[in-house]
Specification:
By secondary structure, this protein is an alpha/beta fold. The protein contains eleven helices and eleven strands. The chain binds pantoate.
Length: 321
C-alpha cells in the first residue's frame, strides 16, 4: 500500500499572524510561504527558495530560533493548492486573492485570518462557490523590526476558533485543519458558527484597538485613561445593539466586561492597531470600529461612538500602502 504524501500548506501574508502560523505549522507539515518577490533583507534570504524567519517563542523563556521556511512566488507553484491560509491585513484580502486566483483549484480550502469584519463578507461574495473558512485568534503576536532584521514574537498564549463560512465549506470537514493547528501547539477549536466568534472578537477589538492607538499605550493602560472611561459604556451599548441585530445577542455589560478582561490579560501587549501606527502603516480601523459604525448606520442603530473613534484614528493613520 502506498502512503499518500502529507498535505502542503500555503500561507499568504507574512505579518504578525502569518509568522505565528508559519512558525508553528512548519514543525508539523510541509509549508510554503507565498511571496510577491524574494525577501529583501539580507538576513532573511537563505538562498534559493528559502527564507530565514527569526522567531521568539512565548515569553522569551525559550531561545530564539532561526526557522528555514520554503517560499515561492505564485507563478512557480505548479500543483493545485489544498489549503491556503490568508493572513494579510483585512484591506489587502481582495488583492491577495487576485494574486493567487490562477492557482486556486475547485476544492482549495481558503482559511481567512483577519482582524475585524467586512473582508470575510467581500470574499464570500467574490468567490461564493469556494470552500472559505475563517479563523479568529486571541494569540498575541508582534513583529519587531530593525534595519536588517525582523523578529517575529509570540507575545501571549491565546485560543483560536476556526469554522466554515460558505456553504461549500460547510459540506467539507475542516477537522484536519483544526488538528494540524493543535498538533502545532496552537489551542484551536472548531466553531460551527464562526460568525459569532468573529462578532465577539470584533467587539473586543472595537473596545481596545482605537484607544491604544489614540493614547499610544499598551492594552492594559487604556483602562485608567479618561478617553476610555468616558466612552466605554456607550461604546459597549452600540456594540450590543449591532451584535444582537446580526443574530448574536450580547448585553452591553457583558461586552464591557470582556473588553476590560482582555485589556488586563494582554496588558503588556501593543495592539495590532498601535503597531500599524508606529510602523507608519494603514490601520484596520475600517474593518473594526468603521465596520461597526457602517453596520449600525445601515440598520438605524446607534453609532456615534464608533464613528467618532473611527474618524479620530483615521486622522492619525497613514493612507493605504
Ligand atoms: O488586535 C489586537 O492587537 C488583538 O486582537 C487584541 C485582542 C486587541 C490584543 O492586543
Amino acid at each position: 500500500m502506498t502512503e499518500s504524501a502529507p498535505p502542503r500548506l500555503y500561507i499568504l501574508g507574512l505579518g504578525a499572524i502569518g509568522g505565528l502560523l508559519a512558525a508553528h505549522l512548519c514543525k508539523v507539515l510541509p509549508l510554503t510561504l507565498i511571496l510577491r518577490k524574494p525577501p529583501t533583507l539580507a538576513d532573511e534570504n537563505a538562498g534559493e527558495g528559502t527564507l530565514n524567519l527569526c522567531w521568539q517563542p512565548l515569553n522569551g523563556k525559550r531561545p530564539r530560533e532561526m526557522l528555514e521556511l520554503k517560499w515561492s512566488t505564485v507563478d512557480a507553484i505548479a500543483h493545485p493548492i489544498d489549503t491556503l491560509f490568508i493572513t494579510t491585513k483585512s484591506y489587502q484580502v481582495e488583492s491577495a486573492i487576485e494574486q493567487v486566483r490562477a492557482i486556486l483549484a475547485e476544492d482549495t480550502r481558503i482559511v481567512m485570518m483577519q482582524n475585524g469584519l467586512g473582508s470575510q463578507h467581500r470574499l464570500m461574495e467574490q468567490l461564493p462557490k469556494k470552500q472559505i473558512y475563517a479563523a479568529t485568534t486571541t494569540e498575541g503576536a508582534n513583529i519587531r523590526e530593525t534595519a536588517n532584521r525582523r523578529l517575529w514574537l509570540h507575545a501571549g498564549k491565546g485560543k483560536t476558533h476556526l469554522g466554515p463560512l460558505t456553504n461549500a465549506a460547510k459540506q467539507r470537514s475542516c477537522t484536519d485543519i483544526v488538528s494540524w493547528l493543535n498538533n502545532a501547539g496552537l489551542d484551536c477549536e472548531f466553531a460551527g458558527n464562526i460568525m459569532q466568534a468573529l462578532w465577539n472578537k470584533l467587539c473586543i477589538n472595537c473596545g481596545i484597538n482605537p484607544f491604544t492607538a489614540l493614547l499610544n499605550c499598551p492594552n492594559g493602560r487604556i483602562i485608567e485613561a479618561e478617553l476610555f472611561r468616558s466612552k466605554i459604556a456607550a461604546l459597549s451599548e452600540e456594540l450590543a445593539f449591532a451584535s444582537s441585530h446580526a443574530g448574536f445577542p450580547q448585553q452591553s455589560a457583558q461586552i464591557e466586561r470582556q473588553i476590560r478582561q482582555v485589556a488586563e490579560k494582554t496588558a503588556e501587549n501593543i495592539s495590532s492597531m498601535l503597531q500599524d501606527i508606529r510602523a507608519g502603516r494603514k490601520t484596520e480601523i475600517d474593518a473594526i470600529n468603521g465596520f461597526a459604525w457602517r453596520y449600525a448606520e445601515q440598520y438605524g442603530l446607534p453609532y456615534t461612538v464608533n464613528k467618532d473613534l473611527t474618524e479620530k484614528v483615521r486622522r492619525i493613520s497613514q493612507p493605504a500602502i
